[in-house]
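Researcher: I'm comparing several assemblies side by side, and this is the next one on my list. It has 222 residues spread over two chains. Same procedure as the others: predict the full complex and return the structure.
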Amino acid sequence: ETGVTQSPTHLIKTRGQQVTLRCSSQSGHNTVSWYQQALGQGPQFIFQYYREEENGRGNFPPRFSGLQFPNYSSELNVNALELDDSALYLCASSSGPGQPQHFGDGTRLSIL
Amino acid sequence: AQRVTQPEKLLSVFKGAPVELKCNYSYSGSPELFWYVQYSRQRLQLLLRHISRESIKGFTADLNKGETSFHLKKPFAQEEDSAMYYCALPLYNQGGKLIFGQGTELSVKP
């Protein structure tokens, strides 16, 4: 069974740029959730995708957007990067909304 | 509003001592709660959920609705228990979105 994989591991960007983070869900999982974890904080829910549709969104501005593909992998896109976007971005997949979530290792994004 | 609070950022104990990591929640309704753990250089993983009422790696947690708490306990801490621990509240009417506490770092000294 392949677990959740995220790429890249680390990324450095400058303010105003755009970034795309990628997540491959665990085999058999059709639901992907994205979380932002700032330093010293717990993860915060960004949004969830279920069967290629957005299925809930946290308190994040529209410049945070996502996609889910037919193979259930997912992308998180962030436009007009700000310094406060520096964080660890976690992807979690599950066999359905409300089912236990399995996390990836995360992508550490640094904004200069 | 739904919220999870972990009042201690760091908890340091000696090996063999009892451990209690505190978690309080705010939720209208009957909650389910989880404890997640993150060992050094490893990914976040589910440790236990109150609904299963099981003991994992010697840890237990009881949901106390009167005190709105879900504290994680272990009678005798081991060095390998050193990790970050997060309490989390799933919102099933929102796709199971997880509300996390800020986390408690447990350090078990030899």
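Model: For your comparison table: The mean pLDDT of chain B is 93.
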